Task: structure prediction
Amino acid sequence: MNPEQTRVLWRLPDGMDEMLPRQALALEELRRSIYDLHVTWGYQPVEPPFVEFLDSLLSGTGRDFERQTFKVTDPISGKTMGLRADMTPQVARIDAHHMDGSDIARLFYLGTVVRAHTDGIEKNRAPLQIGAEIYGHAGPQSDVEVIRLMLSVLQRAGIDEIHLDLGHAGIFRSVCDEIGLDEHDQAELFSLLQRKAVPDIQTFASSLGLSLETQQCLSKLCGLNGDASILADAPAQLKALTNSTMTAALNELREISDSLRAGLSDVNVHVDLAEVRGYQYHTGVVFAAYTPGAGSEIARGGRYDGIGESFGRSRPATGYSADLKLLMRLIGYDRIAEKLGPSSKQSLGSQRRGAILCPDHVCDELKKTVEQLRASGEVVVTDLTGMNQSFCDRAIRRKDGAWLVESL
Result:
């Protein structure tokens, strides 16, 4: 086989990656730590299927992932199936079909998703998605809990500097209702606000024949970002656009911001009233976490009440998601053990002490010794070649009628 044919065989699709042992070990240690963190917060794990029939996978809010979904034909049923591009709609189905529904449900998930296209600056098309949802509670207290959990995950992963952005989908919805925008114009205004293109917003507002006061309010919306004090200024700045929906959204944002700032002295909380990401399905607060050195958000979420309606049970819901692969790349896999440390004798962190070389010898006594060492968290490697392995710093040797561990 010529070199060119070899290169073709080893080539991976764009956005797909593979990990070598050190990277995979670091990612697994991070995964275990984050998994356990969710359990200690009272969240229960769920594991949706990797492939589903397309009509189920793209139901409700899943429609927003239609472009990102790989599609295949099921050879058994002949129906079209899709590889999950996001797990949130799947978890909504689990809550609607399998949970009791009479109480609050705290669920979390951790698994690989696959996307047909890259998402923004991050080029990975197979993220290891971690996320958590609260179903059955409509108040801002559950939003605060989810945000705090998300920030705890980032801190546990070793992200030292976190900036939290808060917005509210109700603000954009109220603006659209107040000036009577159709679906096309809503999409146009959404794009302009995301880019904070004030001159273009003025031109857009003028083309709609809006009053001068309303045009000025739309332009001011772009500048209403900063600390929580802007929430007090917003009603006067947006007077021509203020209605009951806007007032409720501002009050909710104020309550959430106050609750977060009370216990997050090490996190920079930023409010942006023009942040309208996911307005098609978000119904309340939206949030995203950033850190220097990352080109886009490293975690995000928000409230999406009614997400389970298409599955037969409409419940208030709020949640977040992040990509563990991205977090690992940001902090570097060599720092994960340093940041996390061994949480128990069984931790993968113990493997970084080195390994123990074991003779390739059939003996019940030796077998028992090896089992005890492995049960205590030690790494024991069978010597198949008669040559010391470079990563082994100790060895099991027969001495005075017993099998003992000695330094090499």
The chain has a mean pLDDT of 86. Residues 354-407 form one domain. Residues 74 and 80 are 6 Å apart (CA to CA). The chain has 14 helices and 16 strands.
